[in-house]
């Protein structure tokens, strides 16, 4: 084996003993170069969205290799928010059909909020029943729920569409939200694990003082679990916001169209020859921005939530 | 797993059955109505002829026989498999390298945050950005390729390139998430092992092969189960960029199913193909689970 020992990249341990000054180290330098490339690859597309969105569409043809916006303008965003007249939009390379992303933005907010609030709250209630209440067949019913983890969501989409149609909820915001609004097996499982870990002492003291279990749930368990509830809520919100397949099936008109679906429609309406790239990228940015802001605000929580704590 | 803390011995505890029913009712309704019932119904519909307008008519194994003879179905299965292989190999290898480098270089949250950023946007957003970046005429990607002195590539319009390109777009969005999962797994390996390795004069690469990889295996297996199952369900990217084309070269199974149901209103046949996908997923999960279990016992 390589006896000519490669320079060992030390991770600067707390107890720095004989290891000499890290200094310059080829292995480490190569690793950093690689990481910088990964960072660039991760972030460049976001910059490119912004750069293109702020360019005039007609100027993109001449200045396609410019790293800065070409002939900077708000035109792309104006088309996305329906601020340009049809003729103006066509002249600028857009589709000319009226489109208003504020409306889709509102729809996305309503759907994601309904799904998140409902799913987290109802899953928490069920998780409490599984973690703390005494009833027959508890473990069996829980096992049944766990089996739900095995059903790929995609398999239930077609039959759920048939069901939502029979319920008369096609093309409504409730129809888009309903299937994931009441629970997911993962949410129940994740919260149950957390509730099991809460010390029983405080709870039992409250019960001795005559508080009901309902009160204990609302006044003790929920506040004590605010951190995992928030984490679950944020992740659910993001998942729901980014969902495309299900809303694509259920929403047909502006009435229930969410951002992801609207983006697809916007793309299909753009002229086939010479698409309205600046408008498209403006729309893409508008669709992505709320989640990027959410991520910016809760980065630490989101980053640290990814692991196996919930799955193992 | 399911920790059975409540032993039947505790008879003194009050029975909460009524309250429990109340607490569990919304979730149970959701579970039964939107998961169990659709699963059973999906299986039932696969044995029917159903166009949504008239009630389903039972037609036995017709859909399955048709599936066996449908070249488009088999092609879409092959295309999907090809996609899964390219996607998973690229993504897992890259994620593993990123995770190990993060572990060795810096564990700061900002770096993990940046790596995760693409995961925060939807598949539709990712697809549209790359549709633009990889555009044959104007895309910056092709400008760079030209600058290096190579020929432009019609990434999403060339039947040889389309699946690797779709895979690449999804790698961009998911590699950070996968890397963070692996990174979490790396934290479980005791640092003392690396210290011992260093004392013995082992190189980084030796330690990676002798310490990291073997101890990470069970976690890698788990990551693979999650990512492979997800990868088989690819739809959004194809639906937004190519709609199955050119010809059928990117017609992945899920897109064919969607097209069959909503383009041609053949819900029965679409359901049968869904069942086929479900069976494939169950078999793969089962196999991977078995493999990961075997590895775990080796290394416990």
UniProtKB/TrEMBL annotation, chain B:
Location, primary (coarse class): membrane
Keywords of the record: Cell membrane, Membrane, Transmembrane, Transmembrane helix, Transport
Localisation: Cell membrane
Pfam families membership: BPD_transp_1
Membrane topology: Multi-pass membrane protein
Span of domain ABC transmembrane type-1: 73-288
PROSITE patterns for this protein: ABC_TM1
Membrane-crossing segments per the record: 19-40, 81-102, 114-134, 215-235, 267-287
Similarity annotation: Belongs to the binding-protein-dependent transport system permease family.
PANTHER family: ABC TRANSPORTER PERMEASE PROTEIN, DIACETYLCHITOBIOSE UPTAKE SYSTEM PERMEASE PROTEIN NGCF
Name of the molecule in the record: Sugar ABC transporter permease
């Amino acid at each position: 084996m390589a006896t000519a020992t490669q320079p060992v990249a030390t991770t600067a341990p707390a107890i720095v003993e004989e290891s000499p000054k890290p200094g310059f180290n080829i292995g480490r330098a190569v690793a950093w170069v690689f990481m910088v490339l990964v960072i660039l690859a991760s972030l460049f597309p976001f910059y490119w969205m912004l750069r293109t969105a702020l360019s005039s569409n007609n100027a993109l043809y001449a200045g396609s290799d410019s790293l800065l916006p070409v002939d900077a303008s708000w035109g792309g965003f104006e088309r996305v928010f329906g601020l340009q007249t049809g003729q103006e939009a066509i002249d600028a390379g857009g589709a000319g059909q009226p489109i208003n992303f504020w409306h889709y933005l509102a729809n996305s907010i309503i759907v994601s909020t309904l799904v998140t609030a409902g799913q987290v709250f109802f899953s928490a209630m069920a998780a409490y029943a599984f973690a703390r209440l005494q009833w027959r067949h508890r473990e069996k019913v829980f096992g049944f729920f766990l089996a739900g983890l095995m059903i790929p969501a995609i398999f239930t989409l077609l039959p759920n569409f048939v069901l939502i149609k029979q319920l008369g909820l096609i093309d409504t915001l409730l129809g888009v939200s309903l299937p994931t609004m009441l629970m997911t097996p993962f949410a129940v499982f994740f919260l149950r694990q957390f509730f099991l870990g809460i010390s029983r002492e405080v709870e039992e003291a409250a019960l001795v003082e005559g508080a009901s279990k309902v009160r204990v749930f609302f006044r003790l368990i929920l506040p004590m679990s605010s951190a995992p509830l928030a984490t679950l809520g944020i992740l659910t919100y993001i998942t729901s916001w980014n969902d495309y397949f299900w809303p694509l099936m259920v929403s047909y008109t502006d009435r229930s169209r969410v951002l992801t679906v609207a983006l697809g429609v916007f793309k299909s309406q753009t002229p086939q020859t010479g698409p309205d790239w600046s408008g498209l990228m403006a729309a893409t940015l508008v669709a992505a921005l709320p989640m990027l802001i959410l991520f910016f605000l809760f980065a630490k929580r989101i980053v640290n939530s990814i692991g196996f704590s919930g799955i193992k | 797993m399911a920790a059975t803390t409540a032993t039947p011995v505790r008879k003194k505890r009050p029975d909460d059955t009524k309250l429990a029913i109340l607490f569990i009712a919304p979730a149970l309704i959701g579970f039964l109505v939107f998961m169990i019932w659709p699963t059973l119904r999906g299986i039932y519909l696969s044995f029917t002829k159903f166009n949504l307008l008239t009630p389903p008519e039972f037609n036995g194994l017709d859909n399955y026989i048709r599936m066996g003879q449908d070249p488009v179905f088999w092609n879409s299965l092959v295309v999907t498999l090809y996609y899964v292989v390219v996607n998973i190999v690229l993504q897992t290898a890259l994620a593993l390298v990123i995770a190990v480098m993060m572990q060795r270089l810096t564990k700061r949250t900002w770096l993990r945050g940046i790596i995760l950023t693409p995961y925060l946007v939807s598949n539709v957003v990712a697809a549209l950005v790359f549709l633009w970046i990889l555009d044959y005429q104007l895309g910056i990607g092709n400008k760079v390729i030209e600058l290096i002195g190579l020929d432009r590539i019609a990434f999403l319009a060339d039947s040889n390139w389309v699946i690797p390109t779709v895979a690449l777009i999804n790698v961009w969005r998911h590699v950070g998430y996968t890397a963070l999962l692996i990174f979490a797994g790396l934290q479980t390996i005791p640092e003392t092992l690396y210290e011992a390795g260093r004392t013995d004069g082992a190189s980084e690469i030796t330690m990676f092969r002798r310490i990291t990889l073997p101890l990470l295996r069970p976690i890698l297996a788990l990551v693979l189960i999650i990512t492979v199952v997800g990868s088989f369900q690819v739809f959004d990217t194809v639906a937004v960029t190519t709609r199955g084309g050119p010809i059928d070269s990117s017609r992945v199974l899920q897109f064919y199913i969607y097209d069959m149901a909503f383009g041609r209103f053949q819900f029965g046949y679409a359901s049968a193909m869904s069942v086929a996908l479900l069976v494939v997923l169950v078999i793969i999960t089962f196999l991977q689970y078995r493999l990961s279990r075997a590895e775990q016992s080796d290394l416990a």
